[in-house]
Specification:
- By secondary structure, the chain is of the alpha/beta class.
- The chain folds into two domains: about 140 residues, Roll (Diaminopimelate Epimerase, Chain A, domain 1); about 60 residues, no CATH class.
- Helix content is about 55%, strand content about 10%.
- The protein has eight helices and four strands, in the order H-E-H-H-H-H-E-E-H-H-H-E.
- Strands 3-2-1-4 form a four-stranded mixed sheet, sandwiched between helices.
- Strand 2 and strand 3 form a beta hairpin.
- Helix 1 runs parallel beside helix 8 and helix 7 runs antiparallel to helix 8.
- The longest helix has 25 residues.
- The two termini are about 15 Å apart.
- The model has no long low-confidence stretch (mean pLDDT about 90).
Length: about 220
């Protein structure tokens, strides 16, 4: 999924945050990131796996092939070349094919890195800085296919973690349907409605403590 948004889409997202914050005192900060980590572990895992599989292939050749065309393979350097080439090929494919890299990256590792990067974004965007600690971060990490919603202490006192599930699912549906901006706009509206229902009331004085535009992170 590309991270390019048209000017109209960016305006729609900002307008959605504006409208949501009319209903509630909560401050909503949307962030979308290309990824939340590099996951070099997957590259090394692919290299090791392909190297081992190549050695298994060599063993099968030793057992099943009785011709004279592969005599070089019976030399130690031949086995080393095959294993090295296979490991290098696996590493290159994994580095440049996101689906393979994602397949070889443990889901718990992705979850930890996305959560850590979401927490960093929470600090970087100063979501904690509202007077009543009522900021909410919506963090979308594209490569990992993960979404997190982090509320400040004032939000968490009123909103349970499960209350965000519908918001997260709406964003995910928008991504799956290739309607990212539209899904995010609808999710932000749902977020505003939910915060209002949960008692995050709008104060009497008009105020906007955090900018309402979409933050786009190019990735780590």
């Amino acid at each position: 999924m590309p991270l390019h948004f048209s000017e109209d889409e960016l305006r729609q997202i900002k307008d959605a945050v504006d409208a949501a914050e009319v209903k509630t005192a909560g401050e909503i900060v949307p962030v979308i990131a290309r990824n939340s980590g590099q996951y070099g572990e997957a590259v090394w895992r692919a290299a090791s796996l392909c190297g081992v599989l190549s050695l298994v292939g060599v063993m099968l050749v030793f057992q099943l092939y009785d011709g004279w065309g592969l005599t070089w393979l019976y030399a130690g350097w031949g086995v080393a070349v095959v294993a090295t080439l296979a490991g290098t090929l696996g590493a290159v494919i994994t580095a440049y094919v996101p689906a393979v890299k994602r397949l070889l990256t443990p889901t718990d590792l992705m979850a930890r890195k996305v959560h850590r990067r979401a927490m960093q974004a929470f600090v970087e965007e100063e979501v904690f800085s509202t007077n009543d600690r009522i900021g909410t971060l919506i963090y979308i990490s594209v490569w990992e296919h993960r979404i997190e919603v982090l509320g400040d202490v004032g939000i968490n006192a009123l909103v349970e973690p499960d209350d965000w599930i519908a918001v997260i699912e709406r964003i995910r549906e928008g991504i799956q349907q290739d309607r990212v901006a539209e899904g995010l706009v609808e999710a932000i509206a749902m977020c505003g409605d939910m915060l209002r229902r949960q008692g995050v009331e709008r104060p009497g004085a008009e105020r906007n403590e955090l900018a309402n535009h979409l933050r786009v992170y190019p990735g780590d």
